[in-house]
Amino acid sequence: MKPDHIDERLDRLRSGTELNVDIPEAVELRMEEILGKIRAEAPSSLPAAGKRRKPDRAGLSDGILQVNGQAGSHSIVPGRFRRLRRLAAITVAGVLLLGMGMAGLGYMSSAFAESMRSVPVIGSLFSLYGDRGMQAAVENGLVQPVAVTETLGDTTISVRNVIYDGARIVLEVQREGDGEFYSRDLRNPEPGELTSVEAYWQEQQLMPSWRPAGEHSVLVSMDRFQSGLTSPFTLGVTLTVAGVEQPFRFDVPVKINAESVVIEKPNMPDTLANRGFVVDKIIVTPVTTQVFFHLRPKAEDTANTFVHPDDFDMSAARDDQGRVYPILGGQGDPETESGSKQYYIFEPVNKAASALKLYFNVAGGPDGKPYTIEMQVPLPDRQR
Predict the structure, then answer these.
(1) pLDDT by residue (tens digit) across 320-376?
(2) DSSP letter at 309?
(3) In whole angstroms, how far apart are CA 175 and each of 98, 178, 181?
C-alpha cells in the first residue's frame, strides 16, 4: 500500500474533500459567542492610527472600588483583569480550533494530545474566573452539572454547575439577554442586573457572595454554615434582578463528591497552646484546605496569657516548598463561657506538599507589639 503522505492529505483538503470531524454543539455555540464578541469589540478596542492610548487613571480607580452587597462581598474587577480574562477565553478557543484542525489532518502528536487534556473545557467559568480551588475542582472532575432554569417575563436565568467539597458551595449562574448580569453599582442597578442573592438549607440561612464571570454570568459562593449540611441535599436559592418584579427561585441539588484527608488534633507548638489556641482538625480536599480550632475559655487562663477572639487573625498558609495558599473564607464565634470556635478555609494544598504551615497573628506580645506564631503540620502522601 502506498504511504499516505502529508502532501497528499493537503491536496485532498484543497480539492474540497470533506472531513468528518464532529464538533459538539455546545462547543460550537461557545466558539460562536466568543468570536462574536471579538468581532464586536475589535473596532472599539483598536487605538487610532499613529496614536498611543493613555491609561484612564480615573477609570482604574473606579475599577478597583469594592462595595458591600446585601449578601456579602461584592468585588469590582479591574478593567485590566477583564481584558486578561477575555484573552484567556480567546486563547482556549484558539487552542481547541488548532487541535480540531490537526485531528482532522490525522497527525496529532501524542505530546500535543496530552497537552490538550490539560486545557479547561471551553465555557468553564470556574476555570476562567474562579480562584485556585474552583480551578482545581474542574481539573479533578468535581464539577456537578445541573439544569435548573426559570423564566420571568423576558428574563431567563439558569444554574448550570455546582461545586461542593463539604466546606464551600459554588454555583455558576447565567442570565440570557444583553447587558451585564453583575451589577457594578447596587445603588443604581441597570435593568437585568443582579442585585441580591439569598440561599437556604432547610431552616438555615446561608451567607452567599458573588463575583462576575463574564458578561452574562456570576459565580455565587458560600462557606459559612452554622451546622453541617447532610449530603445530598437541596439548596434553596433566591435571586433578585433589577427590572423584574418577582424574585427567581431555584431548588438546586447538591452533593459532596470530593475525597478528603482528615488530620485530627495535630501537635501544636507550646507558644500557640500557651495563648489558648487548640487546633482540633485540618481537612484537606482537592478544592479547599479547612482549619478548625478553638480558643479556650477565659476561666482556664490561670497565667493570664490567652488571646481574645478579637485580638488575632491568620495569614495565608504555606507549604514546605514555599507555595502560598490564600484565605478563601471562614468564621469565628464570639467569646463565651466555653471558649470560641474558629474556622478558616484556604486554597487547596498542592499534592506534592509534605507539610502545611499555618500562621497565627497575635496582637500585644510581651513587648506590646504584634507577632506571628507558626505551626507546621505534616501531611500524608496524597500523590497516589
Answers:
(1) 999 999 999 888 888 888 899 999 999 999 999 999 999 999 987 677 788 999 999
(2) G
(3) 30, 9, 7
Which three cell numbers mark 316? 495565608
Distance in angstroms (rounded) separating the CA atoms of residues 332 and 291: 12
Q: Are 201 and 236 in contact (CB under 8 A)?
A: yes
Q: Nine-digit cell at 104?
A: 482532522
Assigned C-alpha cell, 375: 505551626
Return all residues near 6 (Cβ < 8 A) that are at least 6 apart: 105, 107
Give the helix/strand (H/E) hosting 129. helix 125-129
- Alpha-carbon gap, residue 293 to 161, rounded angstroms: 31
Query: Alpha-carbon dihedral of residues 80, 82, 87, 91, nearest 10 degrees?
Result: 140
At 101, the pLDDT band (50, 70, 90 cuts) reads: very low
List the beta bridge partners of residue 66.
Answer: 75
User: Using 50, 70 and 90 to split pLDDT, how confident is the model at 78?
Assistant: very low
Long-range contacts of 59-68 (CB under 8 A, 24+ apart): 67/185, 67/186
Length of the chain: 384
**Predicted local distance difference test score (pLDDT) of residue 334:** 86
Reading the block at residue 366, the C-alpha cell is 510581651
Q: Locate cell 461557545: which residue?
A: 30
**Mean pLDDT across the chain:** 75
Identify the structural domains of the chain with CATH numbers, from first to last: 62-254 (no CATH), 261-378 (2.60.40)
Which region, left, alpha or beta, applies to residue 364 given φ > 0 means left and ψ of -120 to 50 means alpha?
Answer: left
pLDDT(241) > 90 = yes
